[in-house]
Specification:
Blueprint: H1 5-44, H2 49-64, H3 67-77, H4 87-112, H5 116-124, H6 129-159, H7 171-182, H8 186-218
Main location: membrane
Keywords: Amino-acid transport, Cell membrane, Membrane, Transmembrane, Transmembrane helix, Transport
Organism: Pseudomonas fluorescens
Amino acid sequence: MEWDWHFAAEIMPALLAGLVITIKITLLSFVVAVIVGLFIALAKSSTQPYINRPVTLIAEGIRRTPLLVQLYFLFYVLPDFGVVLSPFVAGVIALGIHTSTYISETFRAGIESVPAGQWEAAKACNLSQFQVWRQIILPQAIPPMIPPLGNYLISLFKETPILSVITVMDLMGMALLEANTSYRYLEPITMVAVGFLLLSLISAQLIKFVDVRLRSRVA
């Protein structure tokens, strides 16, 4: 099968529409992952067993089971219990929660990297818990987190094609639709691969730029 430029140009608008959905899912999933991941990190750092043990058990359970199984559970099993999610929402929740279990370790490592003396100094200044986190801890903990968080963002972007199994019409979903309709797989799948490669490279450079800027401000 030879490359057909006319067909490639014909399916480009559909793939671009799918790319927009892919970017939306990636960003929303990342927001979910960051919020849930921070909660998990704080809960696992708690000295109260009734808080850290259940959260640790649940997080490990999510981390040790395949994302595909979790995706099928949300989309196909939950309706049996009266909870019906759209493919988009199910995809965002599955990707976000699954990734949050890994991001939580990044948060925990970043927080623990702050010297103990900073915590003691904050207490000596009679700062509130909110002020301690906002003014002392997070400004020191966040910069080292940027590279790993950026890597998780890119990984989320590359994992979105799995959502095609629940009929999400993202970049991969649109490519498969066009391929199955025309019986031509060369152009759509190749274009998807190139699109993911280019956006991943661009994202990596942007993350590197943000990391350098933050570190220069801290320094």
